[in-house]
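Supplementary Note 3. Input sequence used for the single-chain structure prediction.
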Amino acid sequence: MKTTSNFLTFDIEEWYNANYDSIDLTKFSGKNTNLEKNVDRLLEICDQNDIKTTCFVVGEVARNKPQIVKKIHDQGHEIASHSFNHNLVYEMTPAQFEDDLRKSLDALEQIIGEKVVGFRAPSWSVNLDTLSWFYPILYKHGILYSSSVFPGKTFLYGIPGFPQKVHRPVVDGKVMDVWEIPQTLVSFAGKSVGFSGGFYMRFFPSWFINKWLESANQKNKNVFVYLHPREIDPGSSRLKLPVLERMIHYWGVKGCEQKLIKVIKVNEQSFVRMRDFILELQDQ
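The predicted structure, written as discrete structure tokens, is reproduced below.
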């Protein structure tokens, strides 16, 4: 029986790339960080387990630290866009979003020498109001797939009722030309929640994550695991955040690397690059 494909993904961004109103990012830009060291560790883990990933890279990282992007690409991992400035999509006009996307693609493609075909919105920041122009702009610039939708609702993001499967979304009665690879949710304590990345991976034990990943696969759902480099680095600098945001941002960082390794060990045979999966899907 054919294994259901899953995806190991990393959002390659600086430790301060977060979308909280209380943060002044200008204070941190240009300062030395642990980003390259953390990316090196993630690449080492992937190499030890013979896994190829999809890495969604912020354009500013590509501009300021192109060696990181080159290193990821040279080791056979997919480079995709995570915007240029890590700004929220729903706070931009269509023109602003298109400009940001264009800048990010230019920065990445100049380094890797090939077309970037994937995009992930910062902080799951697409909503119902943006979908009518979000996908057409992606398609206009050669993007084949997006991995940007959280198909539930939190106080920060989400589109409740959005299909939890890889599909071409229907917006205002029209089928979009771009595929969406949404987050997969589980029912926990009466709510639909994530389980396979970010805070959810740091919060839930590895056995829980593996159990629900297997359950989703049995239902023919593709799951993506996602992390940020700072999430495996207990020594990373920290933002000064209110209590709730601080918990969401930093809970469980100390044990996250080992948890990631445990999840990889159980599911390593299923991980493929998103690019390869979508290209195969389009050929069917």
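The chain has a mean pLDDT of 93. The chain has ten helices and eleven strands.
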